[in-house]
Each structure stands twice: as C-alpha cells, then as structure tokens.
Write a structure and sequence with these properties.
The protein has a domain at about 1-50. It is about 85% helix and about 0% strand. The chain contains 3 helices and no strands. The chain has helices at about 1-30, 35-45, 55-140. The protein is rod-shaped and about 140 Å long.
Length: about 140
C-alpha cells in the first residue's frame, strides 16, 4: 500500500519535471529563429507516463493479503497476551507468598530479640546478685 503511494508520488513528480523542463526549454526556442537539432530534441515533449489506476481485483487481492497478515498478527498478539496474563498471575502469587514469609521472619526476629533482651536482663540480675552478696559478706566480716 505504501509502495503504491510512493510509486504514484514518484510518477507525479517525474511528470512535473518533464512538463516543467519542456516549458523552460520551449520558451527560449520561441525567441530565437535558428534552432539546432539538439535543441529540437530537447524541446520536443516526451510522452507523459500514464498511471493506470489499480483494478478492483488487485485492490481486493491487496486487501485480502493485508487481512491475512493482520489476522495472523492478531492471533500472535492474543497468544502473547494470554502468556503475559498467566505470568502476571504466577508472579502475583509468588509476591504474596514472599510477603507472608517476610512478615513471618520479621515476627520471628522480633521474638528472638525479645528473648535476647530477657536473657540479658536475667544474666545482669544474677551477676548483680552475686556481686552484691560478695560485697555484703565482705562488709559483715569486718
């Protein structure tokens, strides 16, 4: 379709140049009385190229060819769309599973930190009790 349009445009431009060149070369020959054989060949207007409009059969053939290519492309796009949708659903499920795992690990980590804090307080209390009992024993002996 685009090729046909460019061919038509090229033919119109070529006709324009041929007609324009014929007019510019014809103008000087009218002013001078003596013309050379080379000038006569330049001033003679060539036959313009006749552009035949496409027939209905060629238009129909082009439309059916375009329709077939578009239908195959549409089928390919539908298949690609279905694949993308299934991939999207699996990725969403995987994302949900991973977010649940992250929350579980965060709660485990906070529980572990709570236990570490409780153990640290307990060890500190025991060490404090031992130091205090040693200090009071030493002061009673005096």
């Amino acid at each position: 379709m685009i090729v046909q349009h460019t061919q038509k445009i090229a033919a119109v431009i070529a006709m324009f140049f041929v007609l324009h060149a014929g007019q510019t070369l014809a103008a000087p020959s009218q002013t001078t009385t003596a013309t050379t054989p080379a000038a006569k060949s330049l001033t003679s207007k060539p036959e313009p190229a006749v552009i035949k409009p496409p027939t209905l059969e060629t238009q129909f053939a082009n439309l059916s060819r375009i329709s077939k290519t578009q239908s195959t492309r549409l089928d390919q796009l539908e298949i690609a769309n279905r694949d993308a949708l299934t991939r999207n659903q699996t990725l969403q499920l995987e994302n949900d599973n991973l977010s649940v795992q992250v929350k579980a690990l965060q709660s485990d980590r906070s529980a572990q930190m709570f236990i570490y804090g409780a153990v640290a307080i307990l060890v500190g209390a025991i060490i404090g009790y031992i130091i205090a009992s040693q200090f009071f024993r030493n002061t009673r002996r005096w």
